[in-house]
Amino acid sequence: MSTFMAYLKKEQMESSRQSKYLILIAFFGFFALSIPIMLRLMPTIIESQMPSFPKELMEFDAVYSVQNYIKNIYQLGNMAVALVLMGVLADERLQGKLVYPVSQGASMTGVVGAKLIHYGAAASAIVFASTMLNYYYSVVLFPGSNPGVAAATRSAGLLAAYFATRVVVVVFASSLFTKPLAAGLA
User: Fold this and answer.
1) Nearest to 39 by CA among 52, 26, 57, 19
2) Within its chain, how far is the Cα of 124 from the centroid?
3) pTM (predicted TM-score)
């Protein structure tokens, strides 16, 4: 248990030092804010460029905005998580950072478990918060079409759980390969 807690603190310090939190927050936050804004501005932009374009095709609401965000995050978020976390175990194996702690009695289960718990919780929290941020801005920019807080919370929770499983897959791939890029691509 002491190995687990020590490595959990190590992962927190290492992630903040390498700006992994900042990268994930910026990526998911960008899409959470930009999608409702772009959907709000798109009819005006299209109308100014093509006056004869049918306005019925440009009628968006909050539900469509949240669905569009989830679709984009589902497609691009996997790549972001994989690229940010691709060297979680591969870097330590490549540089020989795991040899000394394990030879001194550290549990490999504690080391890998700390990485899984830490990155899974961090990615889930960031995805949940950005999904709720997208929901809030969608409701503000498209009044009258509120999908409901309960539905948004449920969707955010399921999306956060999905990305927690993605973290597990990336850590597993990182344990199979010694090169971080190979782990990220796998």
Assistant:
1) 57
2) 7
3) 0.87
